[in-house]
C-alpha cells in the first residue's frame, strides 16, 4: 500500500493530455475520506468538539480520536462505493449532494433525516427555487462544482484486479484496526457522549442522507402497493337535518410564540381578535415538516405511531366526514395536500391566474374566492371546506404578504435569511402571521354572512412551527426529538357563530384551553365539530368533548 499523489508534468499520450493528476485508487479513497471528514463534516466536528470540551473532564486523546474514527469509517465507505468503472460518476453525485447537505447544515442547522428527505422530495419546484440565492450559488460552485472539476482532472490508476483487491483489503484492514484501537480505549466515552448528544450521529455527511434516502426509496418502491385500509365503513351524520358549514384552515409554519393569543407582545392577531376565537395555548405538532404533520393531523394515527406509508393507505378523517354524507372541498394554496385530499374534490390554486399570484406563489387571499363560490352554492346540509394556506412558509417570508400588509419593518427581503438581522427576520415573519390572521378573519366574515339558521364554525391549526435563528437554527424539519419548541409548539383556535346550536359561546368559554394537547386531537375534534359519528371517535382526544350533545358512545368501539 503506497498511496501517493503525483503531478503529471508531462501527461502521457494515452491520457489525451486531459489529466493533471495521477493517483492510486487507495490514495484517492484516503483523500476523499479526509476531505469529507475534515471539510464536509465541519458541522458534525464542531458539534462533537463542543460536546466533548463542555464535559467537566475530558481527554485530549478522546477528542482527537473523533476525526480519526470518522476518517476510518469514511475510508471503509469510499472503499465500498469506489467501484471501478463507475467510481467517478458516483463521487460526482456524492459531492453535489453532500455540498447541498453541508449548506443546509451550516446555514439552517437542518439534518437530512427521513422526514426531511420526504419533505425535500415532495417540495414543488417553486418552493425549491425559493432557496436559490447568490450565496447558495457561490457555495455550490465552491463545494460542488470545483471538487467535481478537480476530480475530473484526476487519473486514478487502478492496478490489476488481483493486486487492487489485495491493496484495498490492506487499506480496509488498517482502517478496521484503527477503529478497534479507538473503540477499545474510548468505548465508554463514545457511549456516554453519544447518549447525551443523539443528534450528532444524524449530522454525519453523507451517512445521514444516504441511510434516510435509502429508507425513503425502499418505502416508496417496495411497499407502495399495500392494501388500502378502511378504518370505518359506516360513519354517519349524527343529526342529518342540521345545516352546518365548517371551515378547517391548515396553517403553514406558524409558530405559537409569535401569536398575541399566546402572549406575544406584538399584536399579530388584530384581525381575528374581534371575532372572539377560542385559542388553545398548549398544542404540539405531530411532526416538524409539512409532509409529516399534515397527513398526521388528519390521520387516526398519532405522533407516537405515525407512519406516512400507513396514513397514505388508509382512510383519514376527511374521508370519514365525506363518507358520512358531507360535501367536502379541499382548496390548496400550498405544495399539495400530502395525499390527504386524494379522495375528495380538490381545487389547487392556479399560480398564474390572478393578480394575487406571481406565477410561482399566490398570496393566501387567493383562497377566499373559491371559498366564496362554495358558500354561495351549498349543496348539502353538512359542508366542510379545508383551506390549506401558504401561511409563513420560508425562507422567502417577504413573499407571503402584499406590500400593504407590511406592518412591521425593516424586513428581510431575501432568501438567505441567515444574513439578515434578527430584527429584520422577526419583523418579516410577524408580517406573515398578521397576514394569515387577516385571511382567517376574512373567512370568518364570509361565514358570518351566511343565513342565521346555518351553524358556522372554523378550526385553525398550524402544521408546525419555525426557528428564526435562535441558537443558529433556522426554518423547520429538525428531527422531532431534538427540535426546539419553536418548531413544535403550534397555534390552534376554534370559532363558532353566536347562533351555533352545539358549539355555543358558553361551552367554548368553559373549555380548558390550557391543557397539553397535540395534533392527535384533530382527528377526533373534527369528527365532533362536523357532527360525524364514527366508531373511531375517542372522547378523551376531542378538544370539544364537553360541548357535545350528540352521543357518540353508542357507536364507540
Ligand atoms: Zn409546513
Automatic annotation (TrEMBL):
UniProt subcellular location: Cell inner membrane
Domain spans labelled Phosphoethanolamine transferase N-terminal: 70-220
GO process terms (BP): lipopolysaccharide core region biosynthetic process
Keyword Transmembrane: yes
Membrane-topology annotation of the record: Multi-pass membrane protein
Residue spans crossing the bilayer: 20-38, 58-80, 92-111, 131-151, 171-188
GO-annotated cellular components: plasma membrane
GO MF annotations in UniProt: phosphotransferase activity, phosphate group as acceptor
Keywords: Cell inner membrane, Cell membrane, Membrane, Transferase, Transmembrane, Transmembrane helix
Broad class of the protein's primary localization: membrane
InterPro entries assigned to the protein according to its UniProt record, in alphabetical order: Alkaline_phosphatase_core_sf, EptA-like_N, PEA_transf_C, PEA_transferase, Sulfatase_N
Domain of life: Bacteria
Keyword Cell inner membrane: yes
One Pfam family matching this protein: EptA_B_N
Residue span(s) of domain Sulfatase N-terminal: 246-532
Enzyme Commission number, as recorded: 2.7.-.-
Protein name: Phosphoethanolamine transferase
Source species of the chain: Pseudoalteromonas sp. SD03
Amino acid at each position: 500500500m503506497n498511496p501517493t499523489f503525483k503531478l503529471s508534468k508531462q501527461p502521457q499520450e494515452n491520457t489525451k493530455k486531459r489529466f493533471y493528476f495521477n493517483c492510486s485508487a487507495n490514495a484517492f479513497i484516503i483523500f476523499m475520506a479526509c476531505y469529507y471528514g475534515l471539510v464536509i463534516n465541519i458541522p458534525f466536528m464542531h458539534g462533537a468538539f463542543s460536546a466533548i470540551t463542555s464535559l467537566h473532564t475530558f481527554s485530549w486523546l478522546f477528542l482527537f480520536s473523533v476525526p480519526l474514527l470518522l476518517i476510518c469509517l469514511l475510508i471503509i465507505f469510499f472503499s465500498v462505493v469506489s467501484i471501478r468503472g463507475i467510481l467517478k460518476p458516483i463521487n460526482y453525485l456524492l459531492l453535489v449532494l453532500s455540498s447541498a447537505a453541508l449548506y443546509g447544515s451550516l446555514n439552517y442547522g437542518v439534518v437530512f433525516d427521513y422526514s426531511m428527505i420526504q419533505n425535500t422530495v415532495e417540495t414543488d419546484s417553486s418552493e425549491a427555487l425559493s432557496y436559490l440565492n447568490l450565496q447558495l450559488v457561490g457555495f455550490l460552485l465552491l463545494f460542488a462544482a470545483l471538487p467535481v472539476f478537480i476530480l475530473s482532472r484526476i487519473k486514478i490508476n487502478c492496478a490489476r484486479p488481483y493486486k487492487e483487491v489485495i491493496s484495498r483489503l490492506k487499506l480496509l484492514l488498517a482502517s478496521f484496526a484503527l477503529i478497534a484501537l479507538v473503540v477499545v480505549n474510548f468505548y465508554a466515552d463514545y457511549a456516554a457522549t453519544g447518549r447525551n448528544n443523539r443528534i450528532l450521529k444524524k449530522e454525519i455527511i453523507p451517512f445521514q442522507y444516504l441511510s434516510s434516502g435509502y429508507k425513503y426509496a425502499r418505502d416508496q418502491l417496495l411497499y407502495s402497493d399495500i392494501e388500502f385500509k378502511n378504518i370505518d365503513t359506516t360513519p354517519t351524520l349524527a343529526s342529518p337535518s342540521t345545516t352546518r358549514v365548517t371551515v378547517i384552515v391548515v396553517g403553514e409554519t406558524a409558530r405559537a410564540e409569535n401569536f398575541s393569543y399566546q402572549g406575544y407582545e406584538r399584536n399579530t392577531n388584530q384581525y381575528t381578535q374581534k371575532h372572539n376565537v377560542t385559542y388553545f395555548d398548549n398544542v404540539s405538532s405531530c411532526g416538524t415538516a409539512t409532509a409529516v404533520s399534515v397527513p398526521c393531523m388528519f390521520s387516526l394515527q398519532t405522533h407516537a405511531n405515525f407512519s406516512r406509508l400507513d396514513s397514505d393507505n388508509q382512510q383519514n378523517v376527511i374521508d370519514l366526514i365525506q363518507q358520512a354524507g358531507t360535501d367536502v372541498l379541499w382548496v390548496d394554496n400550498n405544495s399539495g395536500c400530502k395525499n390527504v385530499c386524494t379522495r375528495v374534490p380538490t381545487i389547487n390554486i392556479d399560480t398564474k391566474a390572478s393578480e394575487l399570484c406571481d406565477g410561482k406563489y399566490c398570496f393566501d387571499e387567493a383562497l377566499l374566492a373559491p371559498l366564496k363560490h362554495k358558500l354561495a352554492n351549498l349543496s348539502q346540509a353538512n359542508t366542510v371546506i379545508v383551506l390549506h394556506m401558504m401561511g409563513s412558509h420560508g425562507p422567502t417570508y417577504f413573499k407571503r404578504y402584499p406590500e400593504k400588509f407590511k406592518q412591521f419593518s425593516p424586513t428581510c427581503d431575501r432568501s438567505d435569511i441567515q444574513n439578515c438581522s434578527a430584527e429584520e427576520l422577526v419583523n418579516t415573519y410577524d408580517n406573515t402571521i398578521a397576514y394569515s390572521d387577516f385571511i382567517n378573519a376574512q373567512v370568518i366574515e364570509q361565514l358570518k354572512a351566511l343565513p342565521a339558521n346555518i351553524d358556522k364554525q372554523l378550526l385553525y391549526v398550524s402544521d408546525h412551527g419555525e426557528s428564526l435563528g435562535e441558537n443558529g437554527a433556522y426554518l423547520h424539519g429538525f428531527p422531532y426529538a431534538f427540535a426546539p419548541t419553536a418548531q413544535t409548539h403550534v397555534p390552534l383556535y376554534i370559532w363558532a357563530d353566536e347562533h351555533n346550536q352545539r358549539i355555543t359561546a358558553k361551552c367554548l368559554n368553559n373549555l380548558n384551553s390550557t391543557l397539553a394537547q397535540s395534533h392527535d386531537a384533530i382527528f377526533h375534534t373534527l369528527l365532533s365539530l362536523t357532527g360525524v359519528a364514527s366508531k373511531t371517535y375517542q372522547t378523551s382526544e376531542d378538544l370539544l368533548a364537553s360541548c357535545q350533545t350528540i352521543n357518540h358512545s353508542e357507536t364507540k368501539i
